Amino acid sequence: MLPSVPEIPLHFLDWSQPLLPQAVQFLARDWSGDGPLDLSGLAVIVATRQSGRRLREALAAHAARHGQAVFPPEVLLPESLITIDRHASGIASRHESLFAWIDLLLEIDLAAFADVFPVPPIERNIVWAGRLARQFLDLQRELAEAGLRIGDVPRRAGEPFPEAARWAQLARLERLYDQKLASCGLRDRQAARIEAARNPEPPPGVSRITLLATPDPLPLALEALERLAARLPVTILVFGPSDPAGRELFDDWGRPLPEAWNRRPVPFTDFDSQVHLCPDPAAQAERVAAIAGSYPEPADTLAIGLADTELSAPVRNALHRLQPALEAHDPEGVPMRRESLHALIQALLDLLRDPSFDNAIRLARCPDILHCLAR
User: Fold this and answer.
1) Record: fold of 10-82+201-263
2) What mean pLDDT comes out for the span 159-174?
3) Is 179 strand, coil or helix?
4) Number of helices (H), then strands (E), in the chain
5) pLDDT band at residue 322 using 50, 70 and 90 as cut-offs
6) Percentage of the chain modeled with pLDDT above 70
């Protein structure tokens, strides 16, 4: 049961204006300009590390304009609220958890779990067990993000639950897995994260918390924040419409409500200048780059939102062609398989496995090899 929590205030920052200056003004609203800007007792939760860096820079610049220094706030990601103490003992690593699942799957009577294993495997070996063990670990991780373990799912789903028997057997497997870890003096990492969220501790020296423009934090992180709100002041800053109806578009944590947004008409004041119709992704990327080029300092003033992740690479390439020195930051990161190093290592592995002429040619065509030969 959650402790009694006071209503957490929501403050709206007008999305027709840049977010960062408004956030700085709000955080420094009680500062007179005499003496350093002291925010050392504040923790600010932001959506990405990049936004945290920019916030710290903007606060420093704001203080510098008054000839003062800043004692910056503690800037955190939502996941930081549920981080297990790195010095905590007895927490199973991923490999230890993996081996515990493998050991369990190889020793249980599959007939006792017929709803989970309706068809026995052709070969019950470590390869089969390893593949299933990884699936169980992924399932536990995804459920833990919502503060759930496998055994919690039937109760949360309610009645009628069409796969109740299967999930009951999955819960039995998880209990056996917990027992296997306990026999080694270990406990599951995801269970420890859930426990940490239910018994959170604020960072040292922090006396108040602000959740800044974070539209999709993990539910488990919000559980931790709700419990912290019973002990110290918490404020939520929402970046959205400033009109009174804007409050109805967000829940109590500042998360967008999809149903409300689907009903909201898009207020285009000039459709022809605000909406650009493009025939294909390549044209769309070029159009985005052209618009970005109209800004004097796009790296500092422009954010590009993409509904389709497949557009990320074409847009970055188009921006690079327009301004080679312009670095576009993608908070999603770039998969390692797209890097030239991955292609080189993969080509080397292919050649070691099969020293054929085709694999030798594929290695010779790797960008890093070609670059080395051209030097």
Assistant:
1) Rossmann fold (3.40.50)
2) 89
3) helix
4) 16, 7
5) confident
6) 93
Tokens describing residue 191: 């269970």
Sole residue written with tokens 């006071």: 6
Tell me the Cα Rg of the chain.
Answer: 26
Work out whether the CA dihedral 315, 320, 322, 323 comes out positive or negative.
Answer: positive
d(CA 129, CA 236): 45
Of 163 and 218, the structure prediction assigns the larger pLDDT to 218
Q: Is 18 helix (H, G, I), strand (E, B) or coil?
A: coil
| Per-domain residue ranges of the chain | 10-82+201-263, 94-186, 271-322, 336-374
Which has the closest alpha carbon to 36: 60, 19, 16, 1? 60
Residue 1: the pLDDT is 42
100/133 Cα distance (integer angstroms): 9
3-state DSSP assignment of residue 361: helix
Among candidate residues 208, 214, 217, the one with its CA nearest the CA of residue 235: 208
Dmax over CA atoms of the chain, in Å, equals: 75
Taking a C-beta distance cutoff of 8 angstroms, is the pair 340, 347 a contact? Answer: no
Cα 149–chain centre separation: 20
Q: What is the mean pLDDT of residues 133-145?
A: 95
178-233 per-position pLDDT tens digit: 999 999 999 999 999 999 999 898 888 999 999 999 999 999 999 999 999 999 99
